[in-house]
Amino acid sequence: MAQPPILSLEGIALQQGGRWLFGGPTPTTGAAPIDLHVLPGDRLALIGRNGAGKTTLLRLVMERIDADRGQRRVKPGTRIVFLEQEPDFAGAETLMDFAIGGDDAPALHEVEAIAGQLGIDMTRPANTASGGERRRAAIARALAQDPDLILLDEPTNHLDLGAIDWLEDWLSRYRGAFITISHDRTFLTRLTRATLWLDRGTLRRKEVGFGGYEAWEEQVYAEEARAAERMDAKLKLEAHWLERGVTARRKRNQGRLEKLYQMRAARASMIAGAGTAKLKLASDDDFKSKSVIVAENISKSYGDRAIIKPFSLRIQNGDRIGIVGSNGAGKTTLLRLLTKELEPDTGTITHARTLTGVMIDQQRKLLEPGATVRQILAEGGDWIDVRGVRKHVQAYLKDFLFDPALVDTKIGILSGGERSRLLLAREFARTANLLVLDEPTNDLDLETLDLLQEVIADFDGTVLIVSHDRDFLDRTVTITLGLDGSGKVDIVAGGYADWEAKRKAPQTGAKPGSNPALNRANTPQNAPEKPPAVAAKLSYKDQRDYEILPARIAELDSVIAKGEALLNDPALYAKDPARFATISQGIANARAEKDAAEERWLMLAEQVEG
């Protein structure tokens, strides 16, 4: 028998700041009231622009705020846990005090077990803990409560790559449901199976994971564009500039990616053989004349620990350098060395005489809440100088995906993501030929990330980026400096996936420069190849499973795809909730069988290859 939703929001309308965020008192005053139904085992991506109300929707689910209209239904006995973007540590002396304090506190041993896997010292004072340590403590508290539904608001913020991998693995094995807000495309693509899109007060649902979201978004916007043709020109201009801009931006970014690959190939020819951390110089003087940062045999240690072992690097004008590694591996130290904020223990750092930089760090300076957008960007005036070009402040706001009408809005009213976007707008206006970005993607929505990629691609100077956002690095940088924590700096032409492939190359034969992360989107996830010739003796049953499971996995993929196609009808649940539930359960069963089949096949493949 099909299971009913474990949580439902029905006919929800909410007013905030004098406007209807969701719905309205009558159909003519705003978007229609929203409905949300969460089924057992749902893996939902919640997508929407900064300020659209994503976090507010999660707070409604948790009853942290009350809707002006509508009702909330929860299946009896359902435990819901909220991993907030900025948890409140007030009153907690240590991280453990936070984790086991308050209502619905988890058991101490459960928290200790998860904290141990995350590698965090829970005795650390809460008021001196870093953002990453606080985030891990919040994850330990949330997961230790054994929830039926987890609400995750930017769960990868402040996490290093190892912690992100651990969280992805935990969620992939988790039997309950979750809704996640995240700017991390890789995280969303790997984990989600359905998408909730919150757009201009309307909540849409489609039974495809984040990997299919952009195609769905393009389809919706194309339909709106056709409808807009029947509107007058002014209305089209004001109501649809953003949607058209998003569509056009993504198309332009395809061309930019091709250019990025060409730049990576050119830089790859300058990199020495595997195992050496040095960029070879081109044979002509042209390369030297373009060098803007030259590091010769630099190193840095703190006490007996080598943070950066001796290495050399020449950075050309136009290079986009990504710096990756776990927390504590030395990323910020390397960044400070390259920008000459820190002196190396050995070697020299030389900057071109004309180098001028702008730095946007991860500790974003709080913008004055009482100031207006106009004051932040244009010192209260109507015009702003954008890298030497005079531009009207409202036109510049459009460039950064703001409604021009927000020009006199106070900063305190903006969401956290909108404030981050405003800071980017202000900093990008300044004249500079070196851009330094330390964790720039935190708090940004997906459209702003697309915009940030575009601005970086069009920037005339050199860019240094520290980030844990794997997809962002794959789409922006030409060279990756990878730190493994031993002090070695590994230099790879390409993005994060190319660095990861290089590290695995001795075992898998992966070849850096092939851009595996972006190619992965074009192949079925986890699809096993045709079985190779059997090299190990298997039992009759194991041998048969080894041979037939790939075909069964393909059949299950087809069943899942057909089920998702049936659920594409947004009115299906309202018309026939029983059929909706039956199809959803069938998809869940097929996915469970597929997961088990893949695990079984991989186990047998290891025996064969071993």
Can you walk through the features of this model?
There is one protein chain. It contains 20 helices and 21 strands. By secondary structure, it is α/β, with parallel strands linked by helices. The chain has 4 domains: 7-211, 3-Layer(aba) Sandwich (Rossmann fold), CATH 3.40.50; 256-356 and 432-516, Rossmann fold; 359-428; 540-609, Orthogonal Bundle (Helix Hairpins), CATH 1.10.287. The strands form 5 sheets. It has a 6-stranded mixed β-sheet with strand order 6-7-8-4-9-10, sandwiched between helices. A 6-stranded mixed β-sheet has the order 15-18-19-13-20-21, sandwiched between helices. The chain starts with 6 loop residues before the first strand and ends with a helix.
CATH superfamily of the largest domain: P-loop containing nucleotide triphosphate hydrolases
Task: Give me the number of helical elements.
Answer: 20
Alpha-beta content class: alpha/beta
Strand order of the largest sheet: 6-7-8-4-9-10
Overall 3D form: globular
Strand-helix topology:
Blueprint: E1 7-16, E2 19-22, E3 34-38, E4 43-47, H1 54-61, E5 69-74, E6 80-83, H2 95-100, H3 108-118, H4 131-143, E7 149-153, H5 161-173, E8 177-181, H6 185-191, E9 194-199, E10 202-206, H7 213-228, H8 233-268, H9 285-290, E11 291-302, E12 305-316, E13 320-325, H10 331-338, E14 346-351, E15 357-360, H11 373-378, E16 383-386, E17 389-392, H12 393-399, H13 416-428, E18 434-438, H14 446-458, E19 462-466, H15 470-476, E20 479-483, E21 489-493, H16 496-508, H17 516-520, H18 540-566, H19 572-575, H20 577-609
Parallel strand pairs: 4-8, 4-9, 6-7, 7-8, 13-19, 13-20, 15-18, 18-19
Antiparallel strand pairs: 1-2, 1-3, 1-5, 9-10, 11-12, 11-14, 16-17, 20-21
Helix pairs in contact: 3-4, 7-8, 8-14, 18-20
